[in-house]
Every structure is written in structure tokens, then in C-alpha cells.
Amino acid sequence: MNPEFSKAPVRVAVIGGGPSGLVTLRYLVTAHSFLGTAPIEAKLFESESAVGGVFHARTYEDAELVSSRQLTSFSDFRAREDDPDFLSAKRYVEYLNEYCSHFNLWPHIFLSTTVQSITRDSWGKHTVRYLVQATGEQLTWECDAIAVCSGLHVTPNVPQIAGIENIPMRIHSSEFKARSQFGVGKTVMVLGSGETGADVSYLAVTAPTKRVILCHSSGFHFAPKRNLNPIYLPILGSKPSKLTTVPLDNARASLFDTAYVHPLLRNSTALWTFYDAYVKGILWLTTGTPGGLGQYVGQPSPEKNHVSRIFFNKASNAAPYVSEPYRKTARKSLIERIRRSLIQLPIPDTHGREIDLAPWPDHVSKSGIVTFRNSGRPEWERMKNEIIKPDMVVFCTGYRQEFPFFRDHNKAVTVHDTSINASAIKPYPVASDADVRGVWHHDDPSVAFIGFMRPSLGAIPPISEMQAQLWIVHLLAPHLLPLFPLDPTHEPHYRLHHPKGSRINYGVDHESYVYQLALDMGSAMGACEIVSRALERRKARGGSGGGPLSGQEGASNGWWRLPLVWALGANINTKFRMRGPWWWRGAEEVMENEVWGAIKRRRWVFDHFLLSTLPMSIFGPLSLMVWIYATLYRFVFGVELGQSPRPVCCSTTVAKNLRHA
Fold first, then answer.
1. DSSP assignment letter at 145
2. Which of 92, 457, 584, 602 is most open to solvent, judged by the fewest CB atoms within 10 Å of its CB?
């Protein structure tokens, strides 16, 4: 156990009752059964009257998760088998309540309780001051550590636009609930082209509105929630397939993508370059434009137009309405005509409705007419002479990261309040200060920020689960980590390459990030170990069973599934519960059944070949060549090129130099 927390019981406060807070609480209250530590006394404080966070308090009509249930479900409490691939917000809140009941978290949860301030003394003890809303009573609780899980969606960000008050109705997306708020025959202007902005625009254009304008500042990239399902040879009259394809976020194979990638290759831009070309190539092949899903306008600005720099917008229901006026007038070259005759993604019918894309407003006149900035883009040329007089504006401009409960303490420490020994007390960090895997500051591990990293394609809840696991092990049982302290050179490879001046600079590649956290905990299995584990399960079940292509599973119930799922499956969290400090006996069953079921749904060309075979055939040999080069370089010059975590099962020279799973 960490010497700082050698006394029992350790007390930990969790701030926020959304998915991040609940999963952190779950691992805190059960840590003793996994890590061999004394039981932890944990309290979760939530200002709302129910758990769920943004999914409870800030959702709207027809709201649906943009990440799949396979990825979003926590590792040891899976969504129901009969749940759809994408849960509604209402169903997800129900799932979170079931999660609390399953792990008996309710006794530790304090709803309708506002954390007013957090302070600490020179010994490092934290004091949480909170308000019980029902009684007005103010109480305090002393603890040893703080998990900040208040989320990215708390304080609305409302940018200043001159004259915006001249628009009759102005709301932030946090206040939007249903189409009925648009009224009838109204002109609606939506500010912000993220997933919320796209959703609100879609709801507006499918309501009895007069006109819908979507404003953006630097572009966006619409992406599908599912793998594409194009029509082959439409020139011959082929019809769209009714096949429901797999969700995009669990269609990516991990072998040679995150597993067994040499550090030199991992730290280079090679994988980013490949996937940028891959994404744009597939989009052009199936829709005729590389800028986004059927997206003829509004692509990211040149300095952002790369998969390593953008957040994919999977709220793509709005995409055909945005592109409609531009698709009709797009030039049809000979190559484009040939492409369309061979392969084409079905184009949804907008029934004549359009979403007018526009640059960001410069100002609004006293009469309520909007003047847009001259962006030099096609949408500026189309809209510059239009008279736009909105009846309503919806700010879909995100939220500001604020931690008001730290404010009084930090102010007192900064100004050297004479009532405290300020020189001996550290101010609290904020999320942007967390320099160890984006979770805690290296000099302040008792304060964690769970759920503040945003994936470009993925989901925050499973990221939060992995963050909570790592933080708790690091806090209470660092001797269980393969490497302590954690190696800072393993930080950059999973982060997005945000352009200078970006408002959001905490983006990560989901697959790479959770894999790195698994490596940090020794929870990522290698090829030798996964095959050995599969053979052990085969022996325990009895019988030899059939092969993956034989169609016969035999008595072993398909022992070969485990290695195949390990290699071909995405990095869902259950994969990292098969070993390590948080080992769970049910992990293999989930992998062999639920995850295998998702892999079986994949099609051969668009799924297995393009998302598995092609990347593996490129990066597998490339990693091997890099390993050979690095080995020869070390032999000749005595210098190590790149570092990799110590393998968990294999002792071969190759395994020691490859980043493994």
C-alpha cells in the first residue's frame, strides 16, 4: 500500500454521479477484494436528484448514445442482450441505476447534495463541505483523496456575439428538451457544429420550422455510427441491403494496431497517416467526397483536416440535410460517374428540407438580422446575400471546465491567507494540470480527474473505468504496477494533435489510450498467454472442439474464439479484466460470447478485410522490420531505439521489443 495511505480506513470522496463517478465508486468500494487492501470508505456527492449526470439532466427528445453498447457498457456489467446497439439516453440512465443496484452502491451515494468547497491542510487531508438541499444543512467530511468526476458538461459556454440579444429567443442546448420548443413556422439558428449541434439541427429540420441555419467556425467531419453498407453495382439496379452492420467503434482489430506495435512505429505518425488516407479513401469510394459522410460542405479547415486532429461527429442524421443544396449542384466528373455506377452509399430522402450551413455570426443588427463572417468558404458565398432573421438561437457551444469547489481554497493559498499556513499547503490542480495519463498531477496523486479525456471515436464511460482502475491501484497498491512510477514517454502517442489555439486540447485515440492504461496496470495479455489461456479452457471443458471455419464447436464450446477475439476485437474493457490487479472470472465468457457475436456480424470486405486484414498485413510486417532495424542498431552502436513495456508472458527477444497486448 502507498505509505501516504497506510492507515485504515482510507476515505475517498467522489464528486459527481454520472457514469465516471459511479464506476469510480464501484472500484473504490470493492478495491479491498481485488488489491488486498483495507476496505475503503467512499462517499459520492451528486447535486442532482438522480444518478446519470448529463444523460439524466441534459438530454433531449430522441437522444441516443453515439457510442455502442458493446463499447460503452462497463467491463463486468454488460447491457442486456436484447438492447439495441445504441442505447437511448433514457435506457442508459436505467442501465446506470441497475449498475448501482448490482454493486450495492446506493448506501455510498448522496443525491441532491451540493459540494460547496474542498480544502486541505498541511498534512494533505481534504475536507469536503457540502449542502444537503432538502434540509439546507451544511456538513463536512474529512477524507484522504478526491476523485473529481463532475464531467465535461457542467457550466454552459456561451460565446459573446454582438447584438445576439436582438434575437427573440435564446437558449443553450442544456435548456433544450423537445422539438416543440421550436414552435411552428419559425427560423431557427443553431450555433455549433458538434454532435449536439447536429442533433438539434436535425430535430429542427424535422419539425414544422420555416428554416434551419447551422453555424460553424472551423468545420466538422460527419462520421457513421455503423460500418458503411453501400450498394454494389447500382448501374445494374441493385437495391440497398437490409443488413444491420456493426457499430464502427468496435469494428477495429487491435492486433498490430495497438498490440505488438514497436515503440518507434507507435510514436511516429505512420498509423495516423494510414488511417487518414483510409478514412478519406473509403468515404470518397462510397459517397464521392472525402470530407465526411456524404459531406459536400463544411469540412474541417486545412490545419485540422486530418484524423489525428479532429473529433468525429457521429450525429450524422443531419448530414444529408446539410449537403442537399450542394450535392444537387456538385460537378459530376467522368470518374465520379463511373464510381457511382459501381458503388454508392444510399442517399436518404430529405423530402425537400435543407439545413443551411453558414459561417459563424459576426453580429446581429437591432432588427435581428444576422451578418456572418467572411470565411471564404462555399457556404459563405451561398449565404452572404441572404437575409437571415432568426426567431430562435440555440447555443450548442459546449461547456467550460470549472471546479468551483476548489476556488476558495486556491484563492486563500494564492493570496497567502493569514488564517492558514498557506506556504505549507498546495493549491488544488485542475483537469488540464493532470500530466500522468491525464488523470492526476505527478506531484498530487491524491486528486484524480476521471472522465476528462475525450476520444475522437469512442466513449468516455469506458475510458473512465480504466482511469479509475489505474488511479486506485496507483494510490493504494503501487507495488502491483509493472512499472512505478509510470513512464512519461508513453504519454504522447495516444493524444490527438490539436492545432494551436484549439478550445479543446484533451482529445485521445480511444483504442491507444485504454491500451496504454492496461499496459500500465499489467492487464494487457500477450499472444502466448492468450493461446495458453484458451487451451486451458479447452482442457477444462473437455474435448477438442471444432475450428473457427468448421462450424462445429464441439465440447470445448469453441476454445479458439478467445485468441481470435483478442486479435480481431476492439479494445473493450473486458479484454483487460482477464489478467492484472482487477482480474474478473467472467471476462472470458463475455469475450467468447458477446464480443465474438459482434465479430461474427462483420462482413468480409468492408469489415474483416478493410478493418482487420489490411491494417494487420501492413503494420505487422512493418513492426517486424522496425524491430530488426532497432535490434541491429543496438548491436552496432549500443544504443536502444525506443522503449516498450515489459511483456507479461513471453520472454523472447521479439516480445521484449514489441508493444504487446
1. E
2. 584
Q: State how far the alpha carbon of 401 is from the alpha carbons of 151, 152, 173, 503, in Å.
A: 8, 6, 16, 11
DSSP-assigned beta bridge partners for residue 41: 11
Identify the H or E element spanning 449: strand 444-449
Grid cell digits, residue 228:
458503411
Alpha-carbon span 466 to 469, nearest angstrom: 5
Q: Which three cell numbers stand for residue 622?
A: 512493418
Q: Where are the alpha helices (DSSP H) in 210-298?
A: 263-266, 270-287
What would the pLDDT profile of 145-161 be if each residue is shown by its tens digit? 999 999 877 789 999 99
User: Which residue stretches of 213-318 are H helix?
Assistant: 263-266, 270-287
**Cell numbers at 62, concatenated:** 430522441
Helix 270-287 with 614-637: angle, nearest 10 deg: 160
**Is the peptide bond preceding residue 581 cis, with omega within 30 degrees of 0?**
no
Contact partners, residue 263, CB within 8 Å, separation at least 6 = 642, 643, 644, 659
57 in helix, strand or coil? helix
Instruction: Determine the distance from the C-alpha atom of residue 24 to the mean position of all C-alpha atoms in its chain, rounded to a whole number.
Output: 17
* Pairwise CA distance, residues 21 & 597, whole Å: 30
For 279-332, the pLDDT digits (tens) are 999 999 999 999 999 999 999 988 899 999 999 999 999 999 999 999 988 888
What confidence tens digit (pLDDT) does each residue in 179-216 have? 999 999 999 999 999 999 999 999 999 999 999 999 99
d(CA 111, CA 316): 35
What is the spatial distance between Cα 241 and Cα 215, in angstroms, rounded to a whole number?
34
Residues 6+ away with beta carbon under 8 Å from 210: 185, 186, 187
For residues 180 and 38, the answer to whether their CB atoms sit within 8 Å is no
C-beta separation of 451 from 437 below 8 A = no
Rounded-to-integer distance, Cα 371 and Cα 304, Å: 25
**Spatial separation of the C-alpha atoms in residues 161 and 361, rounded to whole Å:** 7
389 and 246 Cβ atoms separated by less than 8 Å:
no
